[in-house]
Amino acid sequence: MAEGRGSAMVAAVVLSLMLVSLHCQVAHAATYVVGGRSGWTFGLSNWPRGKNFKAGDILVFNYKIGAHNVVAVNKAGYKGCSNTPRNAKVYSSGKDQIRLVKGLNNFICTFPGHCDAGMKIQVLAS
């Protein structure tokens, strides 16, 4: 009977350590509000500078519904303000949350003229 209690205790300790490990991994994800108080707007290309983004971090895009949107594009789409993938998700809630992937993450507004006017950002996540 003492052996059964010992095994149960070991199992409980292992389970506890696994839960703590999982919690620590989730706790490392940071949330960034794109543009700060100004939100998702024009002229934000320098906004990512000085920030240490990691894969799994979340970008929050705040803007007036119907005034803008957010679309993830490739590097060419970012530079040319075009090449929106056919299956690209167009975020338009006004409070969009997008999880970063490792590498370069490019976001633009596809409303006519907005990207060309500087409504785009590139974020490098390690």
UniProtKB/TrEMBL annotation:
Species in which this protein is naturally found: Lactuca sativa (Garden lettuce)
Protein name per Swiss-Prot or TrEMBL: Basic blue protein
Residue ranges of domain Phytocyanin in the record: 30-126
Statement: the UniProt record of this protein carries the keyword Repressor: no
Record-linked PANTHER family: BLUE COPPER PROTEIN (PTHR33021), PUTATIVE, EXPRESSED-RELATED (PTHR33021:SF9)
Pfam families: Cu_bind_like
GO annotation, cellular component aspect: plasma membrane
GO molecular function, one term: metal ion binding
InterPro entries, sorted: Cupredoxin (IPR008972), Phytocyanin-like (IPR039391), Phytocyanin_dom (IPR003245), Plantacyanin (IPR041844)
Keywords: Copper, Disulfide bond, Metal-binding, Signal
Signal peptide: 1-29
